Amino acid sequence: MHLSFYREFRPKTFDQVIGQPHIVSALKNQVKSGKIGHAYLFTGTRGTGKTSCAKIFAKAINCENPQNGSPCGKCRTCLALDEPSNVDVLEIDAASNNGVDEIRALREKVKYPPVHGKYKVYIIDEVHMLTDSAFNALLKTLEEPPTHAVFILATTEAYKLPSTILSRCMRFDFRLVGKEDLEKQVRYVFDKCNITADDKSVEAIAIAGEGSVRDTLSVADCVVAFGGDNITIDKTLQILGTSDFDTTIALANAILDKDLGQVLTTINNVCQSGKNLTAFGKEMTVLFKNLIVIKSCKNAKDILAVPQDIFDKLKTLSEKADATTLLSFMKKFSSVESELKYAISPRTLIELTSLECASIDNVKKN
Asked: For labeling, which of 118, 216, 335, 349 is most exposed (least CB within 10 Å)?
């Protein structure tokens, strides 16, 4: 059976975790010092490494011979914890086990000591899904936990947790992963799997991941399923449903030139090619944001981190309007992003937004 990339390449040590150096360093230090807390809160956007770090930490604090704060993966305890039947590291999905009865059962089980290691670790995923009564039951255990018990609560929505729970946890906020780190990870995965891909394809996949390692690798999986072992930018854009850079530039040019006919022609070409209009709307928002960066920042080239030929095209385009006008365009396209997902006619919505932008009177060279 084929394992998806995000499962096959899930990190097994802290050194393999990308984009979270502040968290990795803190957890490593705790393992090295032996000063282990009883409750941790891992919060952040999906796919940024919360559950992976929880599993690594759970093994590391039980490992007989930790290596630089990470589990060795070879000792008797590590091998025992790798077994699906192990009862020392338990993962609980709060989305489907969110009632008070489930938490009460957990409170009964937590009394029993670990079988193999020093600690019994409970990883409660999507903990914000617990009911109020379940939170109250969990609070009792967090207030007076057994010395062998460690709780790791993971959530994408920490603001939904009661303050009484938050105050008893050591909190770690997982950040979105940078585009460069995601590109390195995609390249690493492709190299391991003997897949060739051009730089533009890798960049497009990383951008589509939007800061999530799991989403990025899921996109990479889809691209490989479609394009095989030789990935090109054309294949990548086809599977992503996104448009090429020249198309967004063409529409922006038509808007800034107030050429309504060319605006409609460009959008028709986008629709004829079968591109995803929701993604196209987001790309136009990003394009106008990039033009504002060029107008406003002396180090725009470093901020945007795009190839020189693309930067030159953006710079030329930015000279057609002032920053205020570009900001109004960005706002208009940004406001329709959510509407496009549910619009009966996304094409009409894109056309209307583009024509409105092209009709704004304060376009001027600056």
From this structure: 335
